[in-house]
Structures are given as structure tokens and as C-alpha cells.
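Example record used in the benchmark description.
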Amino acid sequence: MTAIDAVSVFLPSHRVPIETLAAPLRLTEMQIRLFRRFHGLTEVRRDPARSLPDLLLRAVDGLTALRGAEHRVRFVLYGRAFPVVSPYPANPLHDVCRALGLSHALAFTLTQQSCASALTAIEVAGRLLAAEPHQPGEEPLALVLTGEKAFTRDAQFIPETSMFSEGASACLVSAHGDRDRLLAYACAQRGEFDVAGGESPARFQRAYRPALADVIGRALADAGVGLADLRLVLPHNVNLMTWKRLCKLIGLPLEKVVLDNITGAGHVYCADAFVNYRTARERDLLRPGDRYLVAAVGAGDGATFAAMVFEH
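Model output (C-alpha cells):
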């Protein structure tokens, strides 16, 4: 059964109040007030001096379980929100693999599901590992990376919805781990919500919460778990209001959702699940046997709604 063996997260220490982004992003005072008062977004993390490979390597630095196990890593998957994150011919993923001594691993990027691509990466990693031959005691591993730079206007905020923070995560995935085992994964890809291609954002917003609620329901049903059985929900950090309304829609107590990072970090692209996982562990919110749910939504050339159920 696919499992997450270890997780590490890096967020830059430099905090940027969203008011200081008004001029460079050409946002009005009313838009800034919407982000702060309605959506609960007050600041983001940025480190202009740190490159994308630097961000990813800082996340891997905290992955102590990788040390000495590099030879067991067969796959490196990079889940990210944007198809292009660096100018040709630079390849941040291959730079990171070389720096880590992982050039022997098959490395590739997943971007098709935008900010939900990290969940796809976990699921794909598990399927690849399950089919990988190995010697006893040398179970293969996959390294799943997320992390991006706020390098363009589109990569800094989602109009009327969220603000992006720079950051990165790294996790080791195995096919038969004992902790944080994947019980179910549900995903819905909705090509009709091609906002980038001119589809009405208002139509997407109306369908957003019902579509995410449906995917959450499917994941729970596949795992044989009810909402009441969940210890926690690790959300995508789009904004506070979205989660308040979703919780009301599905009957989930808001206190079960780890919302700590929305105010002080905002939306960290594909890394939200792992940022919130770290917070849950730091606050001792997960005990062995607890079931928890991870949710993510990606939007761009269509929309993806995804949810996973894990057992800690």
C-alpha cells in the first residue's frame, strides 16, 4: 500500500505583507482589503535571492530519512502548478537530482493538474514502486518534490481568490510503508472550466465547492471512512472563506481543518498538503491509526478536484 515515509518542508523566513504587493501587482485598495479581511490572507513568504533549485534542495535538506538511502530512490517526481518555471535550457529538476546524487533515478515532472499535481505525484509514485522489482531489504523509494518561485504576475496571485508564497516540500514514498498509508484517492478533471481559455471565472466559482465536496465524498467512500471518522483535514491554502463555506456545505466541523498557514503563508502552490502536514505533526494532532484527508484544487486549462485519505 502506498505510504509516505517522511516529509520535509521549507518556507523562506522573509514575510511580505500583502499591502506591499499592491503597486507591483496593480491591485486596488479594495482588492487588498478583500484578500485580508474576507479571505484571511495577510502575508506571503518570498526569498528573491534564492533560486528554484535552492528552494527544492532546502526542502530535501530536512529529509533525514533520505541520507544513506539515495541508492534506493528509483523515481523523482516533481509536482508543480505551472508548466514552465525556468527559461530553456535550464532544468531545475535535473539540477537537483545531480546535486543529490540521484542521477540514476528516473526523474520527471507532473503539471497537468496545476496545484493538485502533488496528489497525482503521490499516486503515480505508489503505482510505479509497486511494479518495481527489488531485492529483499532494499525496497525502492520515490522522492516527490514540490516548490515554485513567484516569478511572474500570474505566479504571485489568483485574482479575487488567493496569494502565492514561495516554498518547497520533499517527501519519500514507498509502496508498502507502515505510516501515512494511502487508503483512497479520488480525482475529477473538469475541462469545461478552462478559465485560461476564456471560460467564465464566475461559473467555475459556482461549481467549485460542490465539485470539491463530491470528490471528498468519493474518496471517503472508497476508503470506507465517514466524515466523523476523520481526525483532520489538510486543505489547499486557497483562503479561509472557501473552507468555511465548504465545511458548512458538507457538515464538517471547521476545527478539524488545519488552517494555521493560510494567514501567514497563503497558497504555496502544490506544497500546501505537506506544509499543513508538518504543522499537524508539530502540534501533535495526529496519532497512530488516525485517518485524515488531504484536498487540493488546480485551475488553469480546465480544473482538477482531488482528495486523498490516509491512515497515520
